Every structure is written in structure tokens, then in C-alpha cells.
Amino acid sequence: MTLKHTILLFTILIALPMVSQDTSSSVSFWNILKSHCGKAYEGSLALPEEDESFGGKKLVMHVRACSENEIKIPFYVGDDKSRTWILTMNDGILTLKHDHRHEDGTEDDINFYGGTASNAGKKEIQFFPADVRTQQMIPDAATNVWWITLDDKTFTYNLKRLGTERIFKVVMDLTKPIALPEAPWGWVD
To answer: Which three-class secondary structure state does DSSP give residue 7?
Structure first.
């Protein structure tokens, strides 16, 4: 390619409009979730039906802290207040991270794993494939895909480890707000 052709190609590329992703779906999802800020909901384990850690325990989510670019949702399993789902918005794309704490508030060794959506998703569902940090921290989780569904009645948190039988799903009932729970471990009221 000659210098003349290179300059012509460069000029054409600069003149082309930038292709931008339509982020209206993720923004709609974000706004719907944010409308629940300050509310708590009870739910149930849907999958796996027999689970020692979650089965038969009271499951509560509290959309506790919302800012322009971050939503923190503590997730309580019985008396265990160690988990918080953290969603962030960056240029219309959502990221899901998991914050795990000990009862004294210190971080768990396995903490802040998760992933970033590869696109804007849909207003009722967002997918989060495991990121590099997660793969390095938890090698078996390299094929994890988390997803959250959201509609007028339910919020579901889901996990599938592709290539394995591992699957997890909790369904939270958004039609019946409950009394606000105590602060999760590591938070100060």
C-alpha cells in the first residue's frame, strides 16, 4: 500500500461515525433495580433443590446503597451476613462483583470475584461471564456465568459453571417488601 492509499484509508476511517453500543437496555435494567433502593425482600432457593448451605434458610436481599454508578445489595442466608452483590455501571455496561466478609468485617480471602457484561444485555436480564481476576483467584470458576433477571415480580440471581453440573438460582419476591435487616458484616449503620 502506498503512502497515498494509507492517507486516503486513514481519512475515510476518521470520517466514519463511531459505532456505539445502544446502552438503553442496561440503563433500563439499572434504573429498575435502583427503584428498589432502600427496600428488602425475601426469597427462596430454586436450584439446586438440595443444598446444604442455602436450603431451608431464610434468604433476604437488601438493596441497601445506591449511587449514580454503584448499587450494593447485601444477601443474607439465615444468620450469615457475609455476602454483598455489588453492581457498577461504566459507560452503559454493568459489572457484578461479590464482596465476602467475616463476622468481624474483615475481607474473606476469596473476595471481589465476578465479571463484566460483554454487551448491554436486555432490560430484564444481564449476563456476567467470569473475568480474568476471578479465573486467577478461583481457577475452577473460569467458566462461571452469572446472570440476574428482573421484572415487576421477581429478582433472580443465577450462576452456571459451564461444562459442569454446577448451577445455582435464588428467586426474590419483589411484590412484598419486608422489614429492613441489620447491617451486613463489615458495614456500619
So the answer is: helix
Residue whose cell numbers read 470520517: 15
Global pTM reads: 0.87
* Angstrom distance (rounded) from CA 43 to CA 125: 18
Cell 475481607 identifies what position? 107
CA distance readout (Å), 153 to 28, 41, 48, 110 = 16, 11, 21, 32
Half-sphere exposure of 161 (CA within 13 A, CB side): 13
Q: Percentages helix, strand, coil for the chain, rounded to the nearest 5?
A: 20, 40, 40
The residue assigned the cell 426469597 is: 43
C-alpha cell, 95: 459489572
Mind listing the pLDDT tens digit for each residue in 118-142? Answer: 999 999 999 999 999 999 999 999 9
Name the β-bridge partners of 73. 85
Q: Which residue has the cell 415487576?
A: 152
- Write the CA distances from 123 to 11, 13, 28, 71, 151, integer angstroms: 37, 32, 5, 16, 9
- Mean pLDDT across the stretch 99-111? 97
Domain parsing of the chain, residue ranges: 42-173
CB 63 within 8 Å of CB 36:
yes
Q: Nearest Cα to 110, choosing from 88, 87, 79, 83?
A: 83
Report the Cα 28 to chain-centroid distance in Å.
15
Contacts of residue 48, defined as CB under 8 A and 6 or more positions apart, other chains included, come to 167, 168
